[in-house]
Amino acid sequence: MNCNELQEHSRADCFLVKKPRALQWFYKGQLVKEKEEERQAGRFELFLDLLYVAIVANFSDELAEHPDGAHLAKYILIFAPAWHIWADLREIMNSYYTDDLLQRLVILWVMALLVLYANNANDADEDITAMRTTVGAYLVARFTTLNVFLVTSFAAYQHRTQARIMAGFMFVGLLITIPLFLEDISIRAKAAIVAVGIFYQEATWALTLSPWIKAKLHLTYSTAVDIAHEIDRMGAFFIIILGEFVYSIIVGNKTGIGLTSGYAKAVCTLIIAFVLNWVYSSGDGSIQATHPIRRSAWTAFGFFLLHLPLSASFLIGGHIAAASTAIEEFEDGQRWLLGGGLGVGMFCLWIYGMLYRVEGECTLFMGQTTRISMRLIIAIILVVIPESHNHLNAESFMFVIMALFAFLLIWETIGGLSRTSKFFEPWTNRNPPPEEDDREGLAGE
């Protein structure tokens, strides 16, 4: 029994292990839900997110200490598998959430494996034991989630076909990683194997849940998602990434005592993270728009697939921005990681904004293309600025980047306003209404 059930005085299911069930599905193209209420992230999903705060900090810290191409490639190759495990659990919680004993233990088990994965991944390219431990932890974690899909397919007929296809694709994906255990294979070949595995996972996930496979197999019952829950979970992971901006400007008292140059750079980092949160939360920046998940199946897939490069790039840029508080000059590699990370992230946010369908666009100051195009322009500037402004010290460089994000916020805020918008809302009804005179009623009693 959870707290909500106690507070609502409803009778909880008296089972420690509940029957797996699909929470929503399509029947002959019509959406059907087991319950009509909208779901939000559960407490144990948020607990999982806490672990990812540490995982992403660990991965980005390693890259910040060694800002070169080899470590950038390693960062991408170890971040993506961790993302895939999180995405597996997101799918399970979205489609089959029961919050029973078994499901909670699955979360704990996978988290324990993630701890093992994260503590060995950074050394996987130098130590064969670390490589085998990292790959082993990943294999067992994915095999666990694979079995959740497979077992659920026997109990929930609504998702049966696609859940089994998903499990089959995942099993083949695990077989791809077996050569990573072999010591004789070079690290470059292993990196190529991991890259193939990442692409395979993204492609097969999209294929399994796509409208194409539903039509090809003539499925009467097929998978559906709880849109509110998916938006909530993806937004939560983006907040984890932004946490890397603000966490590192505090830990270790890097800014020094008083109003220092480090403090100024910390505030610049904070403003950048604040703007990113604003821009992401506003979608395409308009007053009213249709979310990509609600717009169509293909924009929904674009929304989901976009979050891997979006998160990975902003995590890089955010950590370098936060690290600037303790340094006077950027190394060349750090400058490129900062500009490139934020630039690629802004490019993803431009695509993200274009996936929305705007309602009543003609009433806004700027159309969607004009309004969102500033994200693309700033993305290009951020990518080239490490070369064009390599003479600037860390403080000046951070001020330039912060100014770009501040301008973007002003541009999109104004461009997304209605032409009839006012700056201030009138302060009406500031005083309580006059009370009715009840003296006549009292005299008549």
UniProtKB/TrEMBL annotation:
Xref: Pfam families: LtrA
Segments passing through the bilayer: 101-118, 138-157, 164-182, 194-213, 234-250, 262-280, 301-324, 336-355, 362-385, 397-417
Protein name (Swiss-Prot/TrEMBL): Low temperature requirement A
Listed PANTHER family: BLL5714 PROTEIN
Organism the protein comes from: Fusarium pseudoanthophilum
Keywords: Membrane, Transmembrane, Transmembrane helix
InterPro entries from the UniProt entry: Low_temperature_requirement_A
Keyword Transmembrane: yes
